[in-house]
Amino acid sequence: MKTKEIEQLMGAQLGAVAHIATAVAQRGIIERPEEEDQFLQLRGRKEFRDLIAAEIYENYFLPQRHEFDWQIVGQFVDAMCSSKVAEVLASGVAGNTAYAILKHLLKRVHGELAAKGLSPERVTPYAKMRTNVEKLEEYFAGLGQCTRIAEIEAGTGVSREELYPLLRLLGFSHHRRKHNCLWCPSGTRPVKTI
Questions:
Q1: Vertex 185 angle, CA 183 and 190, to 5°
Q2: Residue 109 CB burial class (10 angstroms; 0-12, 13-18, ≥19)
Q3: Burial class (CB in 10 A: 0-12, 13-18, 19+), 94
Q4: Where are the domains of the chain?
Q5: What DSSP letter does each residue of 118-147 carry, written as one string?
Q6: Looking at residue 156, what is its pLDDT?
Q7: Which is higher by pLDDT, 32 or 128?
Q8: Collapsed DSSP state (helix, strand, coil) of residue 38
Q9: Quick one: which of 22, 25, 37, 49 could link to 174 by a disulfide (CB 3.0–4.6 Å)?
């Protein structure tokens, strides 16, 4: 395809990109480097909830997905990220609260779908996610500190693609500057630079 054809095909979108770039260049950007991604707070933003739902959908559901799978994933992600749940988790009431809430949600969804007689390929992803949450809970209960994704993978036997959305949903923080690529349970800080 030639440049002119691409411009005609994508004209409106490319124009919008140019408009945004111009506006940002005119007003400037205030850079505030962050040490970490605080998913407990970021989950409150729709784009992050959508990201988590998309990652779950892609990594736990086989091709030939159905629209209702996406709807259910969106519902339990929204439930887990609701303001009431966020308040409970932010208060630091109990260290395992996030795990307990997520396991309950997954058990409930699994039970509802199984009771309605849906096929195993529609029900199994929720059981698998619950098992993976249990593995994460057990791993971090024994560890009690921040660690790298490769170590979490090895310690749980769960692939990082399946771990990332669960870690985000559970409100972990991801340190990416001084403490390069450490995942920390909510309320935990890196002890040293690794």
A1: 60
A2: buried
A3: exposed
A4: 1-32, 36-184
A5: --HHHHHHHHHHHHHHHHHHHHHHHH-S-E
A6: 96
A7: 128
A8: strand
A9: 37
193's tokens: 């630079």
The residue assigned the tokens 């001084």 is 178
| Residue pointed to by tokens 């972990």 | 172
Beta-carbon contacts of 140 under 8 Å, excluding residues fewer than 6 positions away, are 185
Tokens describing residue 3:
């440049």
**pLDDT tens sequence across 132-171:** 999 999 998 888 788 899 999 999 999 999 999 999 888 8
pLDDT band for position 36 (cuts 50, 70, 90): low
Strands (DSSP E) found in the chain: 36-38, 147-148, 173-175, 182-184
As a whole number of angstroms, the distance between CA 137 and CA 97 comes to 10
Looking at residue 194, what is its pLDDT? Answer: 44
pTM: 0.78
Which residues partner with 182 through β-bridges?
148, 175
Which residue in the block uniquely carries the two structure tokens 């091709």? 63
* Residue 164 to residue 182: CA distance in whole angstroms: 12
